[in-house]
Each structure stands twice: as structure tokens, then as C-alpha cells.
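Build the 3D complex.
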Amino acid sequence: MFGSKISDSMLMILFVIVVALVPLLAAPFGAGYPALMQFFAIFGIFAIGFNILFGLTGYLSFGHAAFLGVGSYSAVWMFKLLSMNVLPALFLSVIIAGLFALVIGFVSLRRSGIYFSILTLAFAQMSYKLAYSVLTPITNGETGLQLALDDPRILDGERVAGQLPSPTFFGLDMNATTDVAVLGMDVQLNVGYFFSAAFLVLAFWIAMRIFRSPFGLMLKAVKTNQNRLNYTGVNTRPYTLAAFVISGMYAGLAGGLLACMDPLAGAERMVWTASGEVVLMTILGGAGTLLGPIIGASVIKFAEAKLSKFNENVVEAWFSFLPEGLGDSIAFVVAKFVGDGWHLTLGLVFMLVVTFLPGGLVEGARRIGGYLGRRGHKGDLDKLGSNVQGGKSTTAE
Amino acid sequence: MSKSNFSRRGVLKTGAAFGGALAAPTFFTSAANAFTNAPGASAVTLGFNVPQSGAYADEGADELRAYELAVKHLNGEGDGGMLNTFSSKVLDGTGILGRKVEYVTGDTQTKSDAARASARSMIEQDGAIMITGGSSSGVAVAVQGLCQEAGVIFMSGLTHSNDTTGKDKKANGFRHFFNAYMSAAALAPVLSANYGNDRNAYHLTADYTWGWTQEESIAAATESLGWNTVNKVRTPLGAGDFSQYITPILNSGADTLILNHYGRDMVNSLTQAVQFGLRDRQVNGKDFQIVVPLYSRLMAQGAGENVKGIFGSTNWHWSLQDEASQAFVRSFGQEYGFPPSQAAHTCYVQALLYADAVQRAGDFNPCAVVEALEGFEFDGMGNGPTLYRADDHQCFKDVLVVKGKDNPSNQFDLLEVVDVTPAEQVTYAPDHPMFAGGELGTCNPGA
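Done.
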């Protein structure tokens, strides 16, 4: 009843292969360096979690960055107090973010629609302000929480004098990178990336199980018509609250992983634009689909890293082959869309996607698949796990 | 159920694959290089991490101009600028250790996270061996920590908080810019001479670490003059409207307002304080005065008329008449058509100091560079004789006390230097309470 089992397994295997090959696939695009690949995986987790709430129940949370930030702070505190091993840090991140989500969700979920969004936004901004100045003893304010040489780290034994330790997974250093030359490219195999990727796979698998479960179906019912559910005597609150907490725990995991890759927790992580970013990621990739949020997260993080690097001089060099006046004026216009203006590009792309591909990039891929006339293998792409498509086929069955 | 088995097996397989991939790593890398991002035989890459968007974008743009100029001078193009006046003569315009200097840039967005992400991308993707720049203490502390972990040198740009070389100091990080303690130590005698020793001061402070350290420093210095601190009010960063904070001053009995703000906050709070008529008031039989401890020309430009006659301190000013400053202003002016800001100056100097340290050490290894910079004494960089103290990697040099000019002759001529406070007067012990709590640690060459 819940989609084809074989296709789910195929999707899972395919997903694992692609995730494992990211260092190789990203290298030609200049994206194959650890920091960016880690972002792909971590923000993928963040977006998957957000999608469990937004994609399934339709509740648009505008405060998810708060859970990300809470996760990071918890992880860094674990590093400072307990041990540089990442497991306790991640454990605490998920638990604390979950508790946080329980409290915020309990209050916010009393309303739906725009009121819910505004409530979550308010909570997130409140958390941000608290972290930024009020709670400075805990968060170290604007500077951000960092490791220090005199942290207790009670479980860790001897350390190198005068050196800050880095997060490890039972001795595997998260920063360790092996450079391998493949086809003349420098492929960087980074422990931190594969560690995050393992969690991405786990997160993806759990999300898939939720999508296919009766619980997931109930969440979809909430999205379709919550009033009708209420009239039939179903109390939807526990379901939505559970979805909210799960999605908060995903965000906490992502925040914890961010801190594991780079042990710093800053208040900016919780600011409302960061909450908006995950909304963009999810919608751009395709809300309510399994793969969409991960694709959206990767696209946005890639664009952020690459487009924001081109400054005016670079753009002028591109168009230097054109006649003087023309080249300059084109460069002038293009320069507005790159560098610090890359948000403009993001906004344009987002508008185009929402207008012409309401289902996000996943829908675009599906349409292209449709044009290629692969009706015989009906829905190789359908099986990417859209709940819309999946829903249709299940009713047909 | 069968599916869940399948997936579990998939997960197990993946785990095995990851395990295999993980089993190899570390010794490959550590064998390859003695330190992170060792440069090739022909070129070396520096990373310029400056705010290109956000509240400090103006400063960032000026910093980037200065870096581009420094790169030109290091590669032997242009007129050489301060290379000609620098007391160390090992740099000869052939790059660094015979390698051509190339650079990559990143946008800090004045956010710790974004700054670390862009610094990481420059280190991991572009192979930058040194990161420099920034226009905020929060960012400087964050990026300094990152560079310490990554094993590259960090030459901070504009960062004024005591913490950068205080409780958050790192062995791989160096600061040429002055700090809040030095501002306070330099300002106090001038304030005493001009405003007397029995003032009642009211602090408005940007509510984050830099604001706090400056407030602490200034309050301590003025209180030792005999001033009384009436109140310290924290204002949120980027408040825009400060009227609700300024009105209470009128009835507080204070006769001096100290604005621990920077950038647009300072422009707004100062403008509004003047509009509220504070400077026309008489309190306790004295003229009401405003003090802006950290001044910059870019801020003075923003505040316009309102800066006239207001005291503050600055790291460097383009109107200085020494040979080095003149040389820098000349080559910057020729290149861009206007004089450099103090942010541009400190960044230019930092780039040159790094290059010089590598050249003197004969090695790009961060630990060799740290050794060359620690305790390094130099001159001819526009601040007079300067020491890079080994204990905390802070530069000690003269501090300028400036005043908003009454009759500016042009749009850049806004500040006049009223006093040059000698370095001894602003020097403090490395374990001074305002700087205590951190450890430098040992240099990290990475890899």
C-alpha cells in the first residue's frame, strides 16, 4: 500500500551510491572540498527534517534555525565539558533540540497557518536574541562559543599541550582528509564528510520510513484537510507535535554535526534568514518529496559558495573579450547577480521555480523524464518518492 | 518487512564501504607535507576574507583595495608603497621567497559562521596559506580559532576588542590593530586636559563583546581620572533609532556621553544625540560633551557635521606626515583616487608583515612564521616604532587621539590628530585582568 517496496530499496541503494560518490562528482565543479561537501550532507539532513513537518503536515515553521543553533551549542558544550568524541555531542544535540521543539511546538501548534509561522518565527528570534547577548555566559554572545585550552573535557585523557583538540569519532579525526588523484582531478576524501553522509543516509532512511508509515499518512491527512479530520473525531495535535519534534531533532542533529565538523556555535546560526533558508531549500528542491530537500540544500549551498565568490574583477575578466563599452556594461549588470548580490540570483531562480515548477526541481526532473518518453519504465522518476505522485498511485492500487 | 531487511543490509554495506574509505586516511596526508597548503615552486596563494556585504561593507571594500595594492607591491608592480620605508628590507618585489603572490577573496558577511565557511573554502579549495582581513571582533575571533585548527596563519584586520589578543588569543593569530584598552589609555589624558577631572559619564554601548570590552576599558580609565560613571546602557546592535536611549540621559545628571558604538550604529546614535540638543546643554555648570572612543574616517563621513569637536582614538590617519604614511597615501591615492582608511592601512601592513616574516624565516611553515613575527620590532609602517609582542601577538605602537575637524577642507579631511600617545603609555602587562583567561597555546602547522 505504501509505494513499491522494490523501488524504495532501489532508491535507497542509488542514494547511498550517489552520496558515497559525491567527492568524485563534485570535484569537477570545484565543489569537492570538505567544507562544502559537509554542508551538502548536513543541510540535507536539516532540510529532510524540515520537510517532515512542512512537506507532510503543511505547517510552515519559520523558526527551524533555532533548533539548529541549539544543537550546535549543545554539541560544543559537550566538547568543552565531556569529551571530543562526537557521539555524546550529537546525542545531546538531538535530545536538547527535541526538548526545545517540544516546548515551542506545544505552544505554537495551538494555531495553524500564518499564525503558526509567526509564532515559530517569534520563538526563533527570541532564541537568537537570547543567544546573542542575554545568555552570553552560555553562548559567548556575538563571538560564538569556541573550544578553549582550559576546558575540562573530563573523559579525555592526555592532550597535546598548547593545541586545541579536534572532534573525533573514536580516534578518527573529523578533519582528516586523503587526497586521491582521479583522472587528473584532486579528489578529497574527508572523514567528516563520510561521517555526515552516513547520518544523511540514516536520516533519509528514517524519513522514507515515516513517509510510508500510517503515521506519515496521518500527517498527509492533516495537510489535506485538518478540519475534516477533527470533525471525524481525530485529535491531530499529537501527530503534528510529534512531526514538529522529529523535525526539530533532525535540525538538532544537523546543528550538532555542524559543530562536529567545525567546533564553533554562533548566534547567527539562529537568525531568521537562516530559518528562511531551509524553507527555500525545501521548496526549491520540492516540498513533500523525499529527495527534493536534499537537492535543494545542495543547490543553494553550492550557489552560495560559488556565486558569492565572483567579485566585480572576476566578472570584468569574463567579458573582457567584448568591445570596451559593451563588455563593461554587461559586466556591470552581471556583477549585480554574483558576489554579494548572489541572493538576487537565488531570488530569481526561486521565483521561476515556484511559478513554473511548483513541485520544485524534482518535478522538473520528472517532467524531463516524461519528455524523454520513458513511459515503458513508468515512473523511474516517480519513484523518487513524491508524496503527490505516490498518493495517486496508491489510490489507483 | 522484507524492505526493511534490504535497507538494513544496504546500510550495513554502506557502513563497510565507509569503513574502508576511513581506514586509510591520515598517514597519506601527513606524509605529503610538513604543513597545510605548502605552496608550489612558482606561486603562493593568500586568502583575503573581508566583509563584502552587510553593515561593514564599506570597510571591507577598502580593505580589499589595500590588499590588492599590497599584492602589487609584493610582486614588484606599482611604486612599492611602504616597502620603501619599511625598516626590514628583505622584500625585494619578487613576491614571497621568489613565488608570485596570488590571492583569493571571500565574503565574511560580518557573521562568524559565514566568515568561517568562506575561510574554510579558501583553505581547503584554493590552498590559501594565510587568511587575513575582517572588520569585526566577533569574526576575527571566530576565524582566528579556525586558522589555529586548520594550521594556517591568521593576520587579523580591523578588530578592536580586547578579547582578540586577550582571552581568545591564538598562537597562529596576529593583530596589528590597536584595542579598546589602548583607546582608553590614550584618550584619558586628553579628556582630562580638555574636560577636567570631575565629569559624570553616561555610556551607551553596543550590546556585544566588543562594546562590553570597550565600555569596561573606558569606564576604568575615566574613573581613575576621578570621573563618575552615572549609568551604562546596552543598546542592541543595529538599533537604528536610539531616541529611547538618549532621552533618559537628559535627566540623568550626566554631563558626558560616551558612545561605545561603531559603524552605522555610531553614525545614528551620534546624529540623534546631536539632534536632541545634547551638545547645546549645560549640566552641572559644564558644557555637555560627547566622546566616541573608536573613530574611523568612514564613520566621520557618515555622521557629517555632527563629528565636529568630538574626541576619539584611531589606529592611523591618512593626514599623518611621516614618510611611510605619505608613501602609502600616495600609492593608494594614485591607484584609487582617494585616501585610504585606517582599515585599509592595517590590512596593507598585515599583508606586508606576513610576507616579510616568511621571507626572513625562509620558510612558509606557519611555525617558522610565528617565530619570525614574535617579538619582531619594526618601523616605517606609519605608526612609528612598533613591537609584535610575543606573549599575546599584539602590536604595541603609538595611538592617535583625534578630534572632528571644525573646518574640513575637503570630504576626506574630517579628523585632526590632536595627540600621539606614545606606545609606553598604552602598554599593559600580558596578564592584565582585562586580557586574562586565555592561553596562546602553541603554533599549529596543520597537516
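Chain A touches chain B through 61 residues (CB under 8 Å).
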